Amino acid sequence: MNESTVEERNILAYESPKKLLKMFAWPAIISMLANSLYNIIDQIFIGQAVGYLGNAATTIAFPIVTVVLALGTLFGVGGSAFAAIKLGEGRKDVAEKVLNTVTTIAFIIGIIMMIAGLIYLEPILRIFGATEQTMQYSKEFGGVMIAIIPITMLIIGLANLARADGSPRLAMRSLVGGVLINLFLAPFFIFQFHWGVWGAALATACAQIFSLTVLIWYFLRNSKMRLSLHQLLQPDLNICRKVMAIGFSSCILQSGATILQIAMNNSLLYYGNLSAVGGDMAISAMGIVMKVNMIVISTCVGIGMGAQPIIGFNRGANAPDRVKATYLLAARIASAITISGWLCCQFIPKEILLIFGSNGDGFMDFAVSCMRLFLGGVFTAGFQIISTSYFQATGQPLKASLLSMLRQLILLLPLLFLLPLWFGIYGILYAGMVSDLVSASIVAVFIVKEMKKLNNEIANKIIATK
After folding, report:
1. pLDDT per residue as tens digits for the range 157-191
2. According to the model, what pLDDT value does residue 1 have?
C-alpha cells in the first residue's frame, strides 16, 4: 500500500466531525488548561503565603509569559496547521521538515530572548508596571520565567505538532504531568522551604522540564514525523516563512495580550493611585480576574486547536461539507462554555475570588467589579476564537490576523486610554465589555460570508459528482 493510499484512510478523512472533535479537542482543552493552571496555581499559593503584593508581582511579570506564548504560537500553531495540510495532501516528507524547522528556530529565538531578558530584567519589569514595593517579588518570579524561555518555546511548538501528528493525548499528558508536578512542588517550595515567590517560579521550571522531556522522547521514538539531527541543523527557511504566515494571527493575538497587559498594568497603577483602591491593589485584583478568565478562554482555544487539524486536513482533501460541520460544532460548544463562564462571573464572583485569598473588603469590592464589568462581554469570546482558528486552519492568515488584532489592539487598547478620562479607574473595566461586544459583531460579518462561500463549494461538489 503506497503512502497516498494510507493517507486516504486517515481518520480525519472519514470519521464524523463530532467524534473527531471529541478526540482532538479534549486533549487540546486539557493541554490549554494545563498551561493556564501553571499561573493560577502560583497565584493561589502566592496569594495565601505572600498576599496581594505577591500576586501583583506575578501579574507584573506575566507579560514575559505572554511574549513567549506569542512567539511560541507563531511557530507552534503555524507549524501544526501547515503540517496538517501537508499530511492531508499526502506529503509526509514536507510535514517532517516542518517539525524540524520549527524546533530549531523556536530554540534559537528562545536562547536570544533569554539572554536579552536576563540582562535587562529590571528595566523590563519597570515598563511592565513594577513599583518599589513589588520589584523584588517581580524579579524573583520574572527572572526564572525568563531563564526557562527556550524550554517554554519548545514545549509550545512540539505540543502543537504532536496534535498534528495524530497524538493529541500525548501532548495532553506531557502538559498535565507538568501541572501535577507544579501542584506538588509549589506548596512544598513556598511553605516548607519558605522560598516564597521564587519557590513558585522554580516549581514551574521543574514542571516544564518534565513536559519537554516527554515531547522530545515522543518525536525521537514513537511519532510519524521524526526529529532528525540532519534536518535540525539545516532548517528550511522557505517552510519557516510559510509557517510564520499561517501562525501570524496567533502571534498577533498573544502579542496583543502582551501589549494589553503592559498598558493595563500601567493604567491600573496610575488611576488606582488616583483612587481609594491604590495602584498595586488594582493590579493584583485585575491579575486574579484575568487568570480566572484564562480558564474560560483557554478552554475555547483548546477547542479551536482541536478543530484545526480536522478543518485543515479536510480543506486539503477538498471536503467543504466536513469543514463547515466541524466549524459549526466547535463554535456552538465554545459559545456554550463562554456563556457559562460569564454567568459565573456575574452571579458568584466573590466565591471565585476567595480561592485566591482574602485581602480585605476594599480589595474584594474592586475585584468583584473587575470580574462583573471587565468580563461583561466574555460570552461572545467562544465564537470569536473558533472563527479565528477556522481562518488559520484554512490557510487564510490575513483574515485570521485581522480578527486576532480586532479585539485587543484595534478596540480594547485605545479604549483603555480613552474611557478612564471620563470614568477613572472604572473606565478600564468598561473597556473590556465594550470591545468584546463590538468585535463580536464584526467577526460575525466575516464568518457569514465564509459560510456562504462554503455552501457554494458544497453545492458545486454535489453537482460535479452527479
Report:
1. 998 898 888 887 888 888 889 989 998 999 999 98
2. 39
Are 57 and 47 spatial neighbours (Cβ–Cβ below 8 Å)?
no
CB atoms within 10 A of CB 336: 12
Residue whose C-alpha cell reads 493560577 in the numeric block: 40
Place of cell 493575538: 253
Helix/strand/coil (H, E, C) string of 318-336?
CCHHHHHHHHHHHHHHHHH
**Number of residues that make up the chain:** 466
Specify the amino acid at residue 443: V
Measured from the Cβ of residue 41, the count of other Cβ atoms closer than 10 Å reads: 21
The per-residue DSSP string of 114-175 comes to HHHHHHTHHHHHHHTT--TTTHHHHHHHHHHHHHTHHHHHHHHHHHHHHHHTT-HHHHHHHH
Does the pTM exceed 0.70?
A: yes
Q: What is the DSSP string of 410-445?
A: IIIHHHHHHTHHHHTHHHHHHHHHHHHHHHHHHHHH
At a CB cut-off of 8 Å and minimum separation 6, what does 280 contact?
Answer: 52, 53, 56, 131, 133, 134, 269, 272
186, three cell numbers: 509549589
SS3 content of the chain, % helix, strand, coil (to 5): 85, 0, 15
Model pLDDT, residue 253: 66
H or E element, residue 387: helix 381-393
Contacts of 398 (CB under 8 A, 6+ apart): none
Residues 403 and 249 sit within 8 Å (Cβ to Cβ): yes
Taking the C-alpha atoms of residue 59 and residue 269, their distance in angstroms, rounded to an integer, is 12
Residues in the chain, pLDDT under 70:
1-10, 249, 253, 358-361, 466
DSSP H or E segment with residue 22? helix 17-49
pLDDT digits (tens, 9 = 90+) for 202-229: 999 999 999 999 999 999 988 888 888 8
Q: Say what the pLDDT of residue 4 is.
A: 43
Check residue 191 and report its DSSP letter: I
Amino acid at 246: I
pLDDT for position 17: 84
* Cβ–Cβ under 8 Å, residues 107 and 161: no
Residue-level pLDDT at 330: 95
pLDDT for residue 2: 45
Cα–Cα distances in angstroms (integers) from residue 464 to residues 163, 250, 376, in the given order: 33, 36, 47
pLDDT of the residue at 6: 42
Q: Is 460 left (phi over 0), alpha (psi -120 to 50) or beta?
A: alpha
**321: exposed, middle or buried (C-beta count within 10 Å: 0-12, 13-18, 19+)?**
middle
Report d(CA 278, CA 285) in Å as an integer. 11
Cell numbers for 339, please give them: 456563556
Mean pLDDT (the chain) is 87
